[in-house]
Structures are given as C-alpha cells and as structure tokens.
Amino acid sequence: MSSETFETRRTALADVVAIPVTPFAEDGTVDQDTHRALLRRLLDGGITTLTPNGNTGEFYALTPEERRLVTELTVEEAGDRANILVGVGHDIPTAVASARHARELGAGMVMVHQPVHPYVSQGGWVDYHRAIASAVPELGVVPYIRNAQLSGDRLAELADACPNVIGVKYAVPDAARFGAFARDAGLERFVWVAGLAEPYAPSYFSAGATGFTSGLVNVAPAVSLNMIEALRSGDYPAAMKVWEQIRRFEELRAANGSANNVTVVKEALASLGLCRREVRPPSRELPEAERAEVAAIAAGWSI
C-alpha cells in the first residue's frame, strides 16, 4: 500500500471520528432504512469519518451477521463521501475475518477493540494486534486503548512489526498519562485520536491529539464540528464554550460507569423523531423521568 494512501487515512483520523448508533426496528432487528437515514444525516452534516461497529453502535450486543450488515450499510451509504474505520474484535479469527470483510467492501481502516479478556499481558496485547494487523497489511489499523497499564513502547513495538498501525484511539481517562504514552510511543509516528469524545478532547488536544471520537455527533453534527474547528485553530476558550454546551449531555452518558452511554444518544434521537429509543441488554432504556431532560438538551442545540 502506498504511503500516499496511508497519509490520506491518517488525515481522516485527525477529525471528528463519528461512531454511528445502530437503530433497531420494533421487532428488534437492525432497522436498515433508519440506519441509512442516520448515516446520510451525518454525511450531509459534514462528517467524513465513520466507525461502524463502535461502542456507540452497540458492537458487543450485535450478532456476527449484524456486524457484517452494519459494515455493508455504512460502506454502501457513504460511497466516496467518507472514510470508513470498521470496528473489529473478539477472538483473533473473528477479528481477522471482520477485517478482511471490511477490506473486501473497500473500507480503508479497522479499529481493533480492546481485547475482552480477564488476563491481558502487555506482550499478549502486542501479539493480538499483530495477528490482526498482519492479516490485512493494506488497511490502516487503529488500536482502541483503554488499558491504563499498557506502555507506549509496546505500541512502538507493534508498529515496528506492522507499519500499517497508523493511529491510536486512546481512551484512558487521564490526560497526563496520555501525554506520556504518546511521547513514549512516538508522538509524530501515529495519529492520536481522543477516544473519550468531546469532554476530553480539549485536554487531549493540548497533549498531542488531533482527532476525537464522538457519539454526540449522531444528534448534533454541527456541535462536534464546532469543537474540532476551535481546537484546530488553538482557540481553547471557544472549544470550552462548546464543552459547556455539551457538558450535561455527556455527564448523563458517563453516569454510573457509563451505563447510559448509548441510551442517552438514542433517547435524544428518539426525541427528535429520528430513530427508536431501544437499546439491547446489558444497556437499558432511560427511565421516563429522565427522558425530558435529554429531549430538552437536544432541542436546545442548533440541529
């Protein structure tokens, strides 16, 4: 794969990396028409990087067939309007099969979800990602890091073996640790994506991030774009004005160990008549008493 192709993909990561929701129909299946409509809304709103099968898309609650369907819908609907970063994970053969499926469809990148295992060694983390990245050398690979124990030199070790590891979604809620990790791994070597969305974006940008993920973007693309424009220009007071605007919404998502992370986003979309509010266990719909607050926040944004 040419360095120019990877450079294009690196540029795509230095942006608002949208994590679309997966809407469900009344019978509980993926609502394909609504999914397409929500993707078009993101694209029409100016979003150019999409992550099907991310956590806001309820990756872990989808069947293998549904994950493939979500990838196919996203690639087809986006066409040449967006760069696609497909979420993959679970055991190595499953992740590799998903990555190869993404490649066959024409997606340019995969995001590797944190290994879900009670015993993760740092060397084993490298081995896991190396097995996936080496299976799809044509694709840009983005590890999703939530492991505070992982050291930056391990990421460098991975990239030495797999030069297609081009970016990192860093989601440890510690800006000082992020700053150190990025420098230990190689600040210029990777594109650093703030993986905890808008609330952490200003602090992580100040330490070297150039992109951030977003679930809120499903509701109000312009709000997320306003934040990244401010951060790109180094206007932190303007970025923090957006931060204040989205603070309560993100607090509701983060409460109780992020129990309602997806729920709040879908509730906001439901209040706008854009999709049903249903989420799958182990997530749960918002209690009736909290729905009005989410609806009021969504209505107050310039949609």
UniProtKB/TrEMBL annotation:
Pfam families: DHDPS. The keyword Lyase applies. Its EC number is 4.1.3.3, 4.2.1.41, 4.3.3.7. GO terms for molecular function: 4-hydroxy-tetrahydrodipicolinate synthase activity; 5-dehydro-4-deoxyglucarate dehydratase activity; N-acetylneuraminate lyase activity. InterPro entries: Aldolase_TIM (IPR013785), DapA-like (IPR002220). Coiled coil: none annotated. The keyword GTP-binding does not apply. Keywords: Lyase. Belongs to the DapA family. This is Dihydrodipicolinate synthase family protein.
